[in-house]
Specification:
Four copies of one chain form a homotetramer. The first copy, chain A, is built from seven helices and five strands. Chain A is of the alpha/beta class and 188 residues long. The first copy, chain A, has a single domain, classed as Glucose-6-phosphate isomerase like protein, domain 1 (Rossmann fold). In chain A, helix 2 packs across helix 6 and helix 3 runs parallel beside helix 6. The termini of chain A are far apart. Chains in contact: A-B, A-C, A-D, B-C, B-D, C-D. At the A-D interface, helix 1, helix 2, helix 3, helix 6 and helix 7 of A face helix 1, helix 2, helix 3, helix 6 and helix 7 of D.
C-alpha cells in the first residue's frame, strides 16, 4: 500500500454493490416480511456466522419496537410453536444448522422465512417464503456478482433489507424516537 | 502423571468443598432469592466470565419454569425498570461491569441481589440483598478456603445455590417434568 | 412454602447426587480427557443449552492454563482440522446440532470426545471416546436416577468432571495461581 | 400501509445515507485502522448492543484473513497486553462499559481505536486514534443527520468502514478467495 494513494474506493464499491441490490429488490418481498412480522406471535431468528450477527442486529431493533424476539441459541429462547415466525438466513441455503432449524420449525407449524442467495437451494424450497438476495454465495469464488470476499455482500444486504423492514414498521407504528427509547438496554 | 495412579481424588475434593458450603449456608439466604424471584416482574442476570455462565445456566432454568428472564448483553434484553430483579455475581465484589450494572439498576429502582465471596465489598454494600458465599476470591492465592484454582469454588457454588433455588421453586409450583418440557428450546 | 420450614435440603440432594457420580466414575475416563487435551493442537467445545454453558465454563479455564480453545458459534472460531480435539456434551446423545458437529469433525479427522448420559446413543457410537455420565437424560421423567428436573444432574456433572480434569492438568503443569492469573480477561 | 404503495424507498434512504458517509470519510482514517491492525500482536473488539454486533462481524472477517482476534466477553478472550489493539465503537462515546474498557486497555499500554459519532466525547478523548463517523447518536432525536431511528446509521457505517478496511487488507495480502476459505468455521 502506497500511503499517498490510500482511498475510500473499496468502501464505495461495497456501498454501490448494496445500492444496486436495493434498487433491484422486489418491494413485494419486503412487504411479506413486514406482514409476517406483524402477524407473528413471537419472532425467532437464526443463522450461522456473520449472517447470524446481521439477524441479531435486526432482532434487537424489532425488540425496541415492541416485538417479542428470540435468537436461537441464546439463554432465554423457549420452544418455537405454531403462530411463531422463524427468520433464517443462509447465502448458500445449505448451512446444516439452518436447514435443520427450518425442518423443526415447519414440524411445529411455525412460519419460516428464508433469506438466501440461492433461490433453488434446500432452504429456499423448505421455507414458506423465500427472500432472494442476488449476491454471491460464500463458495462463489468468481467476481461477476460481487468484488467482495465470500458472502460479504449477502451478509451486508441481509442486514440492510431488515433495516428497511424495520423503518417501514416504525413509520407505520406512528411511534416517535422518544417512544422507543425506554426499551433500549440500560445496564451496559 | 503416573498412569497407574490416576484417581478421581480432585473431583472428590471439588465436590466436598461445595458440599461444605451447602451445609454452611443460611437457608434464609436461599429463601430471599426464592421470594424475590417470585415477586419480580422480570428477572435480569449479569456477571463476567465463568460467574456469568453459571448465571446463564440458572436463568435458562427459570425460563423453563415460566419466568421472564433476560441476560444482560444478549440480543433481546430490554431496559430494566422498577419492579424488576437483577441477580449479580462477583467473587471479589469489585468487577467493574457488575458494579456499574448494580448502580444503574438501583437508579431505576429495580431490586438487586448480589452473590459474592466478599461480604464487605463495594457490590455487597450496594445490593438490596447479599448472598455471601464463603469461597475464596479469584485473587486469594492461598489454599486455606479452597484447594481449587482462583474463583473456581465461588463460580461452582453460584451455580449450585441457584440450582437449589430452582428446585424449591419447581416443587412449590406443583408442575411436573412433563409440564415444563414444552418450554425447552426446540430448534437446536 | 412455609417460611419456618425453608431448608437447604434440596441443595444437599443436588450435591449428594453429584458426589455419588464422582465416586462411581472410572478415573480412566478422566485420564483419557486429560491425555487428549494435552495431545491436541487446539480444543473446540460444543453443546446446546445448559450443557453448552458448562463446556464454556471449562473452556475458559483451559484457556487460563495456556491451551488454545474455541467455542463453536463464537466469533473467532476457525475451521477444525486434523490434530484438533472436539469435546461435545449431550445428555440424550441425540441433539441434532451436536451430532452434526461430531460428523463434520470426524470427516476432518479431528478427535471427538462425547460426554453423554446414554452410552448407546448415536453420539456415543460416533465419538472416538465416550465419557458416560450415569445421570438421567432430559426426557427421562422418572425419579430413579435423579430427583432433579430434566438433565440437571447431567449438566452439573459435565461441569464437574471438567473441573476435575482442569485440576489435574493444573497440578501436573506445576504452575502457581500467580502464574495463571495474567491470562484472565482484564477488560470487563 | 397501503399494499399498492409499498416501495423500497426506505431501503434506498438507508443506503444513500451510508453512501454519503462513505464519500465524506477521510481515507486517512481508514488507513490508520489498516496500519494498526497490521501492527498489532492481537486484535480485541468491544462495543455494546448493535455496535458490538457490527464489530463481531468485522472481527470474524479479520480472523478469516489470519489475524488473531478476540471479542471482549467471549469465552476464550485472554487479558489484553501491551502491543495489542482494542477497537471500540460507541455512537455517543459515553457507553460506560466501553469507556471502562478503554481505560483498562490504556493502563495496559494497548493501543485503543475508537469509532464514535461524537468527536468530543469522553471515549474520543481517551483513544489513541478516533474515527469520527458523522452520523446521529442514539439520543439525537432530530432528523437533520439521519432519517433513521436512533444510532442506526452509526451502527451500519461502523460495519461498513470495517468491511472497507478488510477489503484493503485482503487486497494487500495477495491471498485469493480460495486461500481464505479453509479458515471458515466448519462445524455449524
Amino acid at each position: 500500500m502506497n500511503s499517498n494513494t490510500f482511498t475510500n474506493k473499496n468502501l464505495l464499491v461495497i456501498l454501490e454493490e448494496n445500492l444496486r441490490l436495493a434498487k433491484e429488490i422486489d418491494p413485494q418481498q419486503m412487504k411479506v416480511l413486514v406482514q409476517e412480522i406483524k402477524a407473528a406471535k413471537r419472532i425467532f431468528v437464526m443463522a450461522a456466522g456473520r449472517s447470524g450477527l446481521a439477524l441479531k442486529m435486526a432482532a434487537m431493533r424489532f425488540m425496541h419496537l415492541g416485538y417479542t424476539v428470540f435468537v436461537v441459541g441464546e439463554t432465554n429462547t423457549p420452544a418455537i410453536l405454531e403462530g411463531d415466525l422463524l427468520i433464517l438466513a443462509s447465502g448458500s441455503g445449505t448451512t446444516s444448522s439452518v436447514v435443520s432449524s427450518a425442518e423443526k420449525a415447519i414440524k411445529q407449524k411455525a412460519t419460516v422465512i428464508a433469506l438466501t442467495a440461492d433461490a433453488e437451494s434446500t432452504l429456499a424450497k423448505m421455507a414458506n417464503t423465500t427472500i432472494h438476495i442476488n449476491a454471491a454465495t460464500k463458495t462463489d469464488f468468481g467476481n461477476s456478482v460481487s468484488q467482495q470476499y465470500a458472502g460479504g455482500l449477502f451478509e451486508q444486504f441481509t442486514l440492510f433489507i431488515l433495516e428497511g423492514v424495520f423503518m417501514n414498521l416504525w413509520q407505520e407504528s406512528g411511534l416517535t424516537k422518544e417512544d422507543l427509547w425506554p426499551k433500549h438496554a440500560n445496564l451496559e
